[in-house]
Structure formats: C-alpha cells, structure tokens
TrEMBL record:
Biological process (GO), any one: L-histidine biosynthetic process
Domain Glutamine amidotransferase: 6-169
Subunit structure: Heterodimer of HisH and HisF.
Organism the protein comes from: freshwater metagenome
Pathway assigned in UniProt: Amino-acid biosynthesis; L-histidine biosynthesis; L-histidine from 5-phospho-alpha-D-ribose 1-diphosphate: step 5/9
Protein name: Unannotated protein
One Pfam match: GATase
Length: 172
C-alpha cells in the first residue's frame, strides 16, 4: 500500500490472471490504492483485468471493475496481434509525451474493442489511446488519474517503451 506506484502485470489468460489476483486480494488492494489517489499501472492482461469483465474461450470472468467494459477476442484476420504497431494518442497525454509517433510492441488476442465512459460536470473522461490490427480498433492505453494502463508491452518496446515508463515514474 505504501509503494509509490503499483504495477499490475499480466501474461496469459484473463481468467487465470484474475484467479491469481484474487488469491492475494489484488482487486481490493488496487481499489484501496486508487481511492487514496495512489498510482497503478496495468500492462497487457494487467490492463485487461482492470475492466469489468473478460470473455475468453466462451468463459466470462469478472474483472477488477475499475472501468466498465468487456475484454473480448479481436475480430482481425490474423490473431494473435503480435509485433510492432502505431497508436492514436489523444491530446493532453503525459504518458506518451515525447513518443507520440512511436511504435510499441503488442502480443494479444483479446482487447476492449468498443468503449466509452459516460462523464458529467464532476468527472473528466480518461485519455484513451487507440490502435488497430487487421481493421479492428481496440484500446491501446488509458490515462485516468492515478490509474494508467497499456495493452502493449512497454518493457519490450525499446527506447519508446522506456520513455513511456519513465514518464509514468516521473508522474508518481
């Protein structure tokens, strides 16, 4: 709880990742940190589990429910989406400062393909970065106050990924 930042990594299947998180009370820890304004960064499946639920291989699994939305199979001719890809970065981003036009490394078959948050005068919409694979558009990253996440792997994305992680750390 006292760490400057919490990293939620994820590799493999949504349901397995959530099972592992539940064993250590991860959803509760994430929620408590966020309620206190403490930064959390999710990467790959670690981003996916921050959403309401995921559907993989016909199995629906509840997520951490920090954001509404469903993680589902990409509708692209070739899956998994594996390799380097560009992203559509929103204006006002601090996470992508200096690397807005760079490519990042993705390895995934599932993502959030249709997503928008309802906001009002008291809440600010998150900054959502999008990417496309095989004609299918999906959420590539989200900046939402203390909660930040990337579908791609910044740690495998060379200098651009290192700069992105540096931006996150500098914001702690």
């Amino acid at each position: 709880m006292e760490a400057d930042g919490l990293l939620v990594p994820g590799v493999g299947a949504y349901a397995a990742c959530m099972a592992g998180l539940r064993e250590i009370h991860g959803p509760r820890l994430i929620a408590r940190r966020l309620s206190g304004g403490r930064p959390v960064l999710g990467i790959c499946v670690g981003m996916q589990v921050l959403f309401e639920r995921g559907v993989e291989h016909g199995v629906e699994t509840d997520g951490c429910d920090e954001w509404p939305g469903v993680v589902e199979r990409l509708q692209a001719p070739v899956v998994p989406h594996m390799g380097w890809n560009t992203v559509e970065v929103p204006s006002g981003t601090s996470l992508f400062a200096g690397v807005e036009d760079q490519r990042f490394y993705f390895v995934h078959s599932y993502g959030v393909r249709d997503w928008s948050l309802v906001t009002n005068s008291r809440t600010r919409a998150p900054l959502v970065t999008w990417a496309e694979h095989g004609g299918d558009r999906f959420v590539a990253a989200v900046e939402n106050g203390p909660l930040t996440a990337t579908q791609f792997h910044p740690e495998k994305s060379g200098d651009a990924g290192a700069a992105l992680l540096r931006n996150w750390v500098l914001g702690l």
